[in-house]
From TrEMBL:
Protein name stated in the entry: Methyltransferase domain-containing protein
Molecular function in Gene Ontology: methyltransferase activity
Transmembrane domains' residue ranges: none
Organismal lineage: Bacteria, Bacillati, Actinomycetota, Actinomycetes, Kitasatosporales
Keywords for this protein: Methyltransferase, Transferase
CDD domains noted in UniProt: AdoMet_MTases
A Pfam family recorded for this sequence: Methyltransf_25
Domain Methyltransferase: 63-153
InterPro entries linked to this entry: Methyltransf_25, SAM-dependent_MTases_sf
UniProt xrefs under PANTHER family: METHYLTRANSFERASE (PTHR43591)
């Protein structure tokens, strides 16, 4: 995440109002200017994901989990799925612009921890949403995705390499998470958004326990770090047949 204030995005006062709301209400408020905010997944990440998924398909029905304003449906699922497209999000405010952007898709208001789907999709994707789930909620979240997929279905999402300890991005994320912890300790309702609680080893463990087989792909178009490792990987979690 790059922190900046765009002319098209929310101002500081609007961000403060969002941050003092619940997670759901905050995104309802942010929705009209979300695509101009620093919280939207960059197009280059979406395009790299679509490029990596294309050789693994084509897929039939596709789901964008925590879809926000619909960028994952528009730039990823549209390119790799031949079946019906569905976006699910708990914020009705976010779903409104998604419906306008991709009117042919099905848009469902739903909590990712209690999805209304069973054996419905060949592919599920998600972008930038996992910071809204505390570590103890991941087993439930992954179990819901597993149930929503057909046997052999694929759950795919990008994971950025963690910043080098002591670097500026490291301290920015550390500071953001610390501020959120303090805010949630002294203010209600809580706004759950943490950037340092989604470590790949723990995520692999929880996905495996939910019944997935895990591989990863380097998203080489997003570059590599000085040590040669990829800046971003695509996690591919396949529901066992």
């Amino acid at each position: 995440m790059t922190l900046f204030i765009s002319p098209e995005g929310p101002g500081l006062a609007e961000l403060a109002r969002q941050a003092l709301s619940s997670t759901q209400r905050g995104y309802d408020l942010l929705a009209p200017k979300f695509d101009g905010s620093p919280f939207r997944t960059p197009d280059e990440v979406l395009d790299a994901t679509a490029q990596a998924l294309r050789p693994l398909g084509p897929f039939g029905p596709g789901l964008d989990l925590c879809c926000g304003t619909g960028a994952g449906v528009e730039r990823v699922l549209r390119r790799v799925c031949t079946g019906p497209l569905t976006g699910a999000d708990f914020s009705e405010g976010m779903l409104a612009p998604a419906r306008r952007a991709v009117p042919e898709a099905r848009w469902v208001r739903a909590d990712a921890r209690a999805l209304p789907f069973r054996d419905a999709f060949d592919l599920a994707v998600s972008f930038g949403a996992f910071g809204h789930f505390l570590p103890h909620e991941r087993p439930t979240l992954f179990a819901q995705v597993h149930a929503a997929l057909r046997p052999g279905g694929l759950f795919a999402f990008p994971v950025a390499a963690p910043p080098r300890v002591g670097s500026l991005p490291y301290w920015v994320l550390w500071g953001f998470d610390t501020a959120m912890r303090v805010r949630n300790a002294v203010w209600r309702p809580r706004f759950v958004m943490y950037y340092r609680q989604f470590a790949l080893p723990e995520v692999r463990r929880d996905l495996t326990a939910a019944g997935f087989e895990i591989t990863t792909l380097a998203l080489d178009s997003l570059g590599r770090l000085p040590d040669g490792s990829p800046r971003c990987r695509l996690v591919l979690a396949r529901r066992r047949q």
